[in-house]
Write a structure and sequence with these properties.
Length: 424
């Protein structure tokens, strides 16, 4: 099969890496891809991935058999609909189904309508009314931009002053653009966060190995939220009992709800969860693979990813066995100094060849090839993954890989998977 992966980040590199291992993959394209993906795929630049017509034309010209969409914007733009209309198989939800991520307001309404456990909330399109509300309530809140904000549109606040400042940042200063035209103000949920991604064909749901992301930029989960500074799987906070509740109380009801809404959901359904003393509650839904959760979940997948994706598209997931490794995986993100604020690009990266020679798994997230040299080209630059028989060994392996790689002003957290290690 000829397969194309749409996107250029660490998640897309991980997807391409896993797809390249399939016995069905004859030719792999990455649009636009990145220097790391160039080792396993033909990278194709010059195509706007938010232009559905351009993606369809490329897929037809290259006679692509399967298109795998990584980022959320093409999905919410309806690229799966456009490809499917031309008879091209595409992994991911339709544009209407992807609104589950595209609008936090819509997601909350669906959860409320179908009794899916989540935080209490209010929606505001007027900043003044939102300010009055948080001053009256005087409690910790999660203030969320309604639309897509590249994983950064959530501000956690401890009191009314912080909540007002967050509202101003999102709605008045437009820190996340038009995504902040409306805000969802949620009660702050106490507990431990985790992510459960699931394959679904719109009927059958198969959860993946649970993982835990580290959003805060600094050790100890301090500082502003980022797109994710590292992750690990499996996450021990998701016990077998909790996983069963997640499936029965959250994943299955949501897929059923989307069918009732007339928006059948196929692809990867991402549930961001808070594990509270009352059980799992939904923080957010995403309509695609998580980043950087994908970087630790897919290395643990023993089954052929192409076969699983085709089963999701064709509605045969109930007939497709999916196997997982018993081990663990840990991803440490190497970031540009200053991220998630301002940072410099163009810093030469050294040590990649040494890491590769030692068999380390390194996913490129924000890199560029300049005259044969790999340089930084984003906030999150690399995801270094350690895979081993348990979390402790995987942590050690990941940080050993990090030590081999360097670039000016490089920054990474030193406590990835600390919660899992505390349980040992």
């Amino acid at each position: 099969m000829k397969i194309a992966v749409i996107g250029s980040g660490g998640r897309e590199h991980a997807l391409a890496w896993k797809l390249s291992q399939s016995r069905h993959t004859e030719k792999l394209y990455a649009v636009p891809g990145n220097p790391g993906m160039a080792d396993i795929a033909e990278c194709v630049s010059g195509i706007d991935i938010e232009d559905n017509d351009a993606i369809v034309k490329f897929a037809k010209d290259k006679e692509i058999d399967l298109v795998v969409i990584g980022p959320e914007v093409p999905l919410t733009n309806g690229v799966v609909d456009a490809l499917s209309a031309e008879g091209i198989k595409a992994f991911g939800p339709t544009g209407k189904a992807a609104e589950l991520e595209g609008s936090k307001v819509y997601a909350k309404l669906v959860m409320k309508r179908y009794g899916i456990p989540t935080a209490r909330y209010e929606v505001f399109g007027d900043a003044g009314r939102a300010r009055v509300y948080v001053r009256q309530m005087r409690q910790p809140f999660a203030i969320k931009a309604d639309g897509l904000a590249a994983g950064k549109g959530v501000i956690l606040t401890k009191d009314a002053d912080e909540a007002v400042a967050a509202i101003d940042t999102i709605m008045t200063d437009k820190a996340f653009g038009e995504a902040g035209s409306r805000v969802v103000i949620e009660e702050f949920m106490q507990g431990e966060e985790a992510s459960v991604l699931a394959f679904t064909d719109g009927k059958t749901i198969v959860p993946m190995v649970p993982s835990q992301d580290h959003k805060a930029v600094y050790d100890g989960d301090k500082g502003p939220n980022t797109g994710g500074m590292g992750t690990y799987a499996p996450a021990p906070v998701i016990t077998p009992d909790i996983m069963e509740r997640v499936k029965k109380e959250i994943l299955e009801p949501m897929v059923e709800a989307m069918n009732k809404e007339g928006r059948p959901y196929k692809g990867c359904l991402y549930a961001g969860l808070m594990i509270t003393d009352k059980g799992p509650r939904v923080v957010e839904f995403n309509a695609r693979f998580g980043d950087p959760e994908t970087q630790v979940v897919l290395p643990l997948l023993k089954s052929d990813l192409v076969e699983v994706m085709l089963a999701c598209i064709d509605g045969t997931l109930d007939k497709t066995p999916i196997e997982w490794s018993d081990g663990a995986a840990v991803c440490v993100v190497m970031a540009s100094g200053g991220y998630p604020g301002s940072y410099e690009k163009g810093k030469e990266i050294t040590g990649l060849d040494a890491a590769k020679a030692d068999g380390d798994i390194v996913f490129h997230a924000g890199t560029k090839n300049v005259d044969g040299k790999i340089v930084t080209n984003g906030g999150r630059v690399l995801g270094v993954v350690g895979q081993a028989e348990n979390i402790k060994a995987a942590v050690d392996k990941a940080y050993e890989g990090v030590k081999k790689i360097s670039f000016d002003k490089e920054y990474h957290r030193t406590d990835i998977a600390h919660r899992a290690l505390e349980r040992l």
